[in-house]
Amino acid sequence: MTRRTEWPDSAGETTSAAGDAETRHGRRGRRGTEDSGGRSSSRAEAGPPRTPEEQARAICLRLLTGTPRTRKQLEDALRRRGIPEEAAQDVLSRFEDVGLINDAAFADAWVESRHHGRGLARRALARELRTKGVDSTLIDVAVGRLDSEQEESTARELVGRKLRATRGLDREKRLRRLAGMLARKGYSEGVALRVVKQALEEEGEDPELLDQHLPDD
User: Fold this and answer.
1) Can you list the alpha helix ranges (DSSP code H) found in 36-51?
2) Helix (H/G/I), strand (E/B), else coil: 161
3) Which of 58, 67, 88, 102 could form a disulfide with 78 if both were Cys (CB 3.0 to 4.6 A apart)?
C-alpha cells in the first residue's frame, strides 16, 4: 500500500496523486534497471574515486602482505601505477613511522636468509641489497655481521657438497669448477682458491701439483 504524503495546503489531493504516480513510475524504472543488468546498483556500490593517498596505501599494503619490501621497491611500484610523488612520499613516510617499512630490518633478514640458505658471501649480498634500494650505510651494517671466519666456513661447506660431483675430472678442471662456483656466490679469488685447494688436498691431491694450476700472485 502506498503511503500518501500530506501537504499542508489546498492542493493536497493533487500533490498526493502525483506522488503515487512517481512511486509507481519509480518502481517500474527500478525494475527496468534491474532487468537490464543492475548497472545503477553497480555504480552506487563503486562509490566515488579514491584519493591518491588511499590508492597508495592500498597498493603498499597489498605488496607488503607476506613479503617485506624496501621503501625504494614500494616507491617504484607506486610510480609505475601513476601515484603522484607527493602522495606517494607521504604514505611511505607514514608506513616507516609505524614500522611497516624498515630497511634496516629488511637488510638484516636478507643477509641471514641468503647467506645460510644460498651460501652467498658479503660481496654478493651487498650487491643484491643495492639493487633493492637499501642505503649503503645499512648495507655495511648488515653484511658486517658476517665475519671472515664465518664466511670461509660457509665456503668450505659449499665445496664439500660439490666435491663428489667433480670426481673423475682432471685436477685443473676440478679446481677451476669449484673455485668458479664460489666466485659466483661472491667469494674473493683468494678465499675461493684457498678453500678449494685445502679440500682437494684432504682428498689426497698433491699440494705441489695443485700449486701449478693456481694463478700467480
Assistant:
1) 39-46
2) helix
3) 88
Report pLDDT digits (tens) over 29-80: 444 444 444 444 444 445 566 899 999 999 999 999 988 999 999 999 999 9
Q: What's at 90, amino acid-wise? A: D
What is the chain's length? 217
pTM score, two decimals?
A: 0.72
Q: Nearest to residue 215, comparing CAs of 184, 182, 189, 177?
A: 189
Identify each DSSP E strand in the chain by its residue range: none
202: amino acid identity, one letter: E
Please give the Cα distance from 163 to 175 (Å, whole number): 10
User: Is 6 exposed, middle or buried, given 0-12, 13-18 or 19+ CB atoms closer than 10 A?
Assistant: exposed
Q: Do residues 123 and 186 touch, judged by C-beta distance below 8 A?
A: yes
Q: Name the maximum alpha-carbon separation found in the chain.
A: 120
**Quick one: CA dihedral 82, 86, 91, 93, positive or negative?**
positive
Q: Distance of CA 169 to CAs 24, 88, 165, 206, 214, Å?
A: 91, 56, 9, 15, 17
How far apart are the C-alpha atoms of 151 and 120, rounded to whole Å?
Answer: 9
Q: C-alpha angle with apex 98: 76 to 138, nearest 5 degrees?
A: 60
Distance between CA atoms of residues 133 and 125, nearest Å: 13
